[in-house]
UniProtKB/TrEMBL annotation:
Keywords: Membrane, Transmembrane, Transmembrane helix. The keyword Transmembrane applies. It comes from Paracoccus zhejiangensis. The chain crosses the membrane at residues 15-34, 46-68. The keyword Transmembrane applies. GO terms for molecular function: DNA binding. This is LuxR family transcriptional regulator.
Length: 181
């Protein structure tokens, strides 16, 4: 089961609003430029036409600046999206590294992943189509292999890795928690 974050964010709404404003400004700019050239041909260059021409130039400059801002905003959103995808990939690799170190079976890996996602034993049993007792036994085996006492400690292993300084996680990969003696 894969949980997804909502796609509508404040930045996406801002980008969409900015795009709509750009379209409206572009339509207004086209109208004004046509009006200026029509008036220029009809009346010649006077103070009114000069004022309309300056307003039209300012409109085109605003349009250009808004287009640059939209492009920069989309670039920032793409960068953030790449970062989130990289973090997800890193987290998946980190989890897989711990699971390999602990030598979890395929069934234990699936149960451990569901535990990390926050599901309780009843829900996990329902997803997997097995008895709750089976999930309890697999959970106990996971905790023993990981050297932890329960869900909270299992979860804390991964939280510590997420919050660790980048240099610490790059050196040796997942090392697992300290084992109690």
């Amino acid at each position: 089961m894969r949980l997804r974050l909502p796609r509508t964010s404040r930045d996406e709404r801002r980008a969409a609003t900015l795009a709509v404003l750009i379209v409206v400004l572009a339509l207004a700019a086209v109208f004004f430029i046509i009006d200026v050239f029509t008036d220029l041909g009809e009346y010649g260059l006077g103070w009114h036409i000069a004022l309309e021409l300056m307003a039209t130039v300012a409109l085109f400059i605003s349009l250009g600046l808004m287009m640059l801002e939209l492009r920069e905003m989309q670039s920032r959103m793409d960068s953030l999206d790449r970062g989130i995808r990289a973090a997800r990939g890193d987290m998946a690799g980190l989890i897989g590294g711990f699971f390999d170190r602990w030598q979890l079976t395929a069934a234990e890996r699936e149960v451990a992943l569901l535990i990390l996602k926050g599901f309780d034993n009843d829900a996990i049993a329902g997803f997997r189509g097995v008895a709750v007792g089976t999930i309890r036994a697999q959970s106990a085996s996971i905790y023993a292999k990981a050297g932890v006492d329960g869900r909270a400690q299992l979860f804390s292993i991964f939280m510590e890795e997420l919050l660790a300084e980048p240099q610490a996680t790059e050196k040796g990969g997942p090392e697992g928690p300290p084992r109690s003696s």
